[in-house]
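Supplementary Methods, section 5.1.

A reviewer requested that the exact input to the structure prediction be made available. We therefore reproduce it here, unchanged from the version used in the analyses.
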Amino acid sequence: MNRSTIVMIPLALAGLISSSAVAQQRPAIRQLGAVTAKTAETFGNIASVRALSDGSLLVNDIPGRRVVMFDSNLSKFTVVADSTSATGNAYGGRTGGLLAFRGDSTLFVDPASVSMLVIDPSGKVARVVAIPRAEDASSIGGGFGGASYDGRGGIIYRPLNFRFGGPGGGGVRIVGTPGSATPAIPQLPDPPDSAFVVRVDLASRKVDTVGVVKTPKIKLETKSDENGRISISSLINPLPVVDEWVVTPDGAIAFVRGRDYHIDWVNPDGSKVSAAKIPFDWQRMTDEDKVAFIDSVKAVRERQGNSPLALGGAFAGAGGGGTPNVQININPGGPGGGPPRGSPPPQAQVNFIPPNELPDYKPPFFAGSVRADTEGNIWVRTIPTSAVAGGPVYDVINRKGELVDRVQIPAGRQIVGFGPNGAVYLANRDGTSLTIERASVK
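The structure derived from this sequence is encoded token-by-token as follows.
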């Protein structure tokens, strides 16, 4: 080996290292484009929005128990479905879900009636069809974006992964001693920390599993006092390492993995591809950091009450998953039943794991933090790893699984949907009320 060859080897290695470093650099954070329209109508909360090609917008208003349709300027709206007799299209007694359907048509899934309203582009209910699997009505129509139409005749969703008794519940029942004033309450098994994502064909009702995701881990414990009052305590991790999933407009499914931050793709033809790891500023958490984080979550919860946002965003619902999907039915007393009839309702309590059980590194995102835009890009609301002034920062990942952009939205906002021509829809919370804004991507 001559001298020139020896010199060239280190130079070549240096070049490879330099190229690798460049490839792993994260794009600079930029600001979202200007707001171009805003609703005068306010909401207590919204589950999801559905933008149509002409700029009009369907909104699922949870507290108002209605679906409304705004014009392209977000200035006027009509009621599509509500809980009164005003429209003749009942919202139902439970939270419903809004799904993009064929073309500009939309599905409103009503778990209470086990049916789906097909809403045409003008905002009229064209017909009513049955939910393909009645036992999964709450999973498909839960209201927090937990289901998507794949464009090929199927609905993709995550079924409820833990149930106690009740019609169709299965699993473990909460059982008491018949006739006893102090029912025997067994220790509940912990909900699983993973869940299936499935596809159900609307025509054949056939169900296929398309993937598995890691979900927030929760521990449950029940107690009963001498008056038959049941308390249910949950011990949760407010900073869990989880997976998320979302369906792109072409019908592909992106499974965003939280442990090493990469995307596993399931393409429309069923083929699977794992993309490279996405560059991320992994922040190690010291023992002091963990204690401070738990204290901050407790403080937020005390200010905001027992709500999803108060739990550090771990269970905030957004497209492609969201809440831990735990359903608990306390059955009335009687033969083989639970607590005596007339017993006080169960009291739920939320506690947090000890700080030393938090992960050693901050995960890249919380549950419910992933959405897909109309171009097939994946937007991930990231957990801050350093002090960044302003609102949340989203990683924008292309169809190849590559990080191509980082976008910061204004403070107090959250992305709730995307529309044609680069439209981004934001929920803007001001105190207890919420308005919807439309901004441009750039």
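Helices lie at 3-24, 137-140, 287-304. These observations are discussed further in the main text.
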